[in-house]
Amino acid sequence: MTPPPARRRRTGDNGTAPTHNLPRRGAVRRAQAITTYGVGSLIAVDHESFVVSGLDSAETSWGADESPRVHERRLERLLEVDHFRLPPASDDHSKDGVRVRRFPLMHSCPECNELQRHRDFNPPPGRSVCGTCEVDLVPSRFVVACENGHLGEFPYWQWVHRSTERGASAPGQCGGRLKLRTSGRTSSLRSILVSCTCGNAPEVSMEGSFRRNALKDLGLKCWGTRPWLGSTAPAQECGLALRTLQRGSSAVWQSVQKSALSIPPWSDSRTDPLAEHWNALRSRHDSRERVQDYLDGAFREGCPIPLDEVMALLAAEREEDPDSETPPSFDHRYRALRVKEYESLSSGNESSEDSRKEQFICETPLGDSGLLAPLGVTGPMLVKKLRVVRALKAFTRLADPDSTTDAKEVPLSASPLRWLPAMEVRGEGVFLRLSEDRLGIWEKVPGVTARIERMRSAHQRVLDQRASDQGQAVPSPATPRMVLLHTLAHVLIDEWSLEAGYPASALRERLYAADDMAGVLVYTATSDSAGSLGGLVAQGEPDRLDQTIRSAVHRAEWCSADPLCVETEASGTSGTNLAACHACVMLPETSCEHNNILLDRALLVGTPEDSHLGFFADLLQQ
Q1: Which of 219, 255, 270, 508 is surrounded by the most beta carbons within 10 Å?
Q2: What is Dmax (Cα atoms) for the chain?
């Protein structure tokens, strides 16, 4: 990562201008630019702090050389972009990187206790030290943010002068200088003391600054600053309440990601060269002659796939378009994408001699799948090859960790762009479904519906509170089959991490839960040494899968936190879990689609008072 470019431009050893003249300020993995350190996030490098620049900022690279293009047709249509780009690589061969800007600008000197903007310390070029004391400056530990995604400096001056008549005035009018020190008595906010040399205000601590209305009581509202966009985007009118946050808090930045499997007919890598020409081809779909003329002009050496297959792709895309005149919502289109994936996973896509360029191979196991019938499991499939594209759509601030929605999304650029950052993962997986007959009977058990209603009500309260100023809240996705499938996926990942040698963070779930869907895909979600070597596919053979499910269910029967865990009336931040904790079914954040909420292992194994709640309760009696 690099800071914004300097005004002066140097030349390279050969006399030519280099890609940039900026020092590197650290390195992150490509995947972290999507999941952890994406646009608008804060990143600490040594003793300095930066915010990652927006995509359309003049200081952002993401050029063609550093950012190879990635295509996934269904996800592109869903997110309304033309293509995706991989983040620049952080290695010795990388010519450039993702640009960052210094933030927060307020720093303090641990030697002279001055608290002021970074530039006012007169640091030497390229260093972050006090020009007087020559010690490392400390970035402000505190920032402010609002639910619209704006980010700003903590108002130290107003905080110090809040008891004076100047509390609502502009900073600096008192003629004094701010000081910050720590008493060292405790590690709490009470020991962080801020003062002003004007002598008109007493020294105050930071205690109470994190109260929800602390800044509102000072008459302060959000002024709409967006430091990640720099000078390309002026401050917006906002006026929402500001919240004080620690600079390293997870509430400062949370990614909004959308993903899709590459499935037929778009999983054939031969179609990749067509991606750049798809808009032109779509406008000519009604005429084979016009399509052929365009292909002849676009591909001098011949189109990589026959004309009949191109026309079939165009027809397949039209079939996915909605029939109604009213455009469907984003959630409906994303659900339709999942339905198509479920159909492909259920029907399979057998390998052949011509499938070397196929990115999705899903086959029926060789063993007898009837072994799984007593478990209520049907239709296991071995996904020997898959490709998942995960795109960073936007980000949120002050997001509730117990919500599965992406409310108040902040775009990655000030103006609309036709591309988004994304990562692709190539791996393997195991897909299985639950018996609809047995599932239908289990879903009607009164104890099951009562537990689900308790979870759904708690989650719906969270969604309603979050959408209180936005109108109608989306309904909670909590249903008996959704919570059952979600918990089953977690215990399977835990079991395979113990028995098959996969770290839990290297596996990921993908749930298919609806009235007409009841399946779960567990797949490798990393491109490192824990990737696709056939080990996960081998676990999907019926005899091994039978042992895995039985063992996972027996492990879920007991938790080291029992009886507290299994008998709890509500768990999680807002009561969106029941019998679920980090000692039994919770997973690393990278493995779970729903932020470790809507989990209940009692739906797998039952409770001591009522064993019939468990879908797999019969296994515990064998």
Answers
A1: 508
A2: 83
State the burial class of residue 2 (Cβ atoms within 10 Å of its Cβ: 0-12, 13-18, 19+): buried
Q: What is the pLDDT of residue 440?
A: 92
pLDDT band at 452 (very low <50, low <70, confident <90, very high): very high
Q: Which pLDDT value is given to residue 603?
A: 95
* E-state strands within 21-118: 42-45, 48-52, 69-70, 83-85, 100-102, 106-108, 115-117
Mean pLDDT on 277-289: 80
Q: Which of 442, 360, 402, 482 is nearest to 611 (CA)?
A: 442
Q: How far is CA 432 from the centre of its chain?
A: 25
Over residues 191-208, the pLDDT tens digits come to 999 999 888 788 899 999
Phi, psi dihedral angles at 587 (to 5 degrees): -120, 170
Task: Average the pLDDT over 111-128 and give the result.
Answer: 91
Calculate the CA dihedral of residues 333, 319, 517, 376 and round it to 10 degrees: -150
* 384 and 357 Cβ atoms separated by less than 8 Å: no
pLDDT tens string 508-545? 999 999 988 999 999 987 655 445 566 889 999 999 99
Burial 422-440 (b: 16+ CB within 10 A, else e): bbbbebbbbbbbbbeebbe
Q: Assess contact for 367 and 542: CB atoms under 8 A.
A: yes
Let me know: does 495 contact 604? Beta carbons within 8 Å: no
Structure tokens given for 482: 């959704």
H/E stretch holding 260 = strand 254-261
258-280 confidence digits (pLDDT tens):
999 999 888 888 787 888 787 78
pLDDT digits (tens, 9 = 90+) for 609-619: 888 899 998 88
Query: What's the whole-model pTM score?
Result: 0.84
**Sign of the C-alpha dihedral, residues 245, 246, 251, 253?**
positive
What residue type is 190 in one-letter code?
A: R
SS (H, E, C) 148-162: CCCEEECCHHHHHCC
Give me the DSSP letters along 182-238. E-SS-SSGGGEEEEETTSSS--EESTTTTSTTTTGGGT-------GGGGGGSPPPP-
- What's 18's DSSP letter? P
**Rounded alpha-carbon distances, angstroms, from residue 576 to 399, 402, 456, 579:** 16, 7, 7, 10
Phi first, then psi: what are they for 381, rounded to 5°?
Answer: -135, 145
CA dist 357 and 270 (Å) reads 7
Query: What are the start-end ranges of the H helices in 446-501?
Result: 446-466, 480-499
Tokens representing 437? Answer: 């007959």
Rounded CA separation 228/222 (Å): 16
Contact 236, 174 (CB under 8 A): no
Q: Tell me which DSSP letter residue 474 carries.
A: P
10 Å CB burial of residue 203 (0-12, 13-18, 19+) is exposed
Distance CA 354, CA 53 (A): 44
